[in-house]
Amino acid sequence: MKRFGKQYNLGPWLGGFKDLASRTMVYVSAISFTQISATFYYTTLYPNLKNTAPWITFWVFFATLVLVVLAIMLIEYKFIIASSYTFLNKQEYEHENLIRKDIRTLRTELRAEMKKLREEVNASRDNSTDEQPK
Question: What is the DSSP string of the chain?
Fold first, then answer.
């Protein structure tokens, strides 16, 4: 993805707004889906099918739409989600995320502590060999 140029981190506010908006759109979409389906059925589908397929009631039509949506959800779950998470994980790793920064800081602190402990252990070993009776 480097060929598209540098990406810019604008902070958490834009991503937070987008995330919240997309989470609430699920509910708005369900309402819109129901209204659009009813409008389509009564204004377009039923008038054209009432002579040839009068058994296609609104509820049969709507149940068919729900089954199509469930099939799409299954495809999304089985094939697309894993790829999306792989992409998001790569994005989080490439850009300075807080967890990676904390790990880098902790690693530096641990290395300093380990160096200090090694020096103390080596100093105590040196002192213990000097104090042994001859």
Answer: -GGG-------HHHHHHHHHHHHHHHHHHHHHHHHHHHHHIIIIIHHHHTTT-TT--HHHHHHHHHHHHHHHHHHIIIIIHHHHHHHHHHHHHHS--HHHHHHHHHHHHHHHHHHHHHHHHHHHHHHHHHSS--
